[in-house]
Amino acid sequence: MFPAMAAPPPQFTDAEIDALVETFYARVRRHHRLGPIFETAVGPDGWPAHMATLKDFWSSVLNTTGRYKGQPVTVHQHVEGLTEGLFMPWLNLFHQTCVELFDAPRAAIVGQKAERIARSLKLGVFFKPDAVA
Q: Which domain holds residue 53?
């Protein structure tokens, strides 16, 4: 008898990823602390390209499509005004969006991935062990 294999993680459709990215970043843009940071970083004319990049990113994260080819840590290292304290409101809005768009198990999958991404970005952007105090 063969051992039971774990079920593959659920796939997310492109339409679901589009809804996640569009709904979440509409909220980010309206947020009193996050909005100004993103507006400065993306610029008034940069949102269509940024949204396409984000959809590729989440497609790669959720479905391992390989569509995203960027370097998120490098990009975020150059975002003016980004602080560690902004990750919590970002995550809160993200979790809220996931709960509204997906059933509980799928919202948890996406939320866990966002938590890991946030930890990775915080380490990559803010952890400076060689910095002089």
A: 14-64+73-126
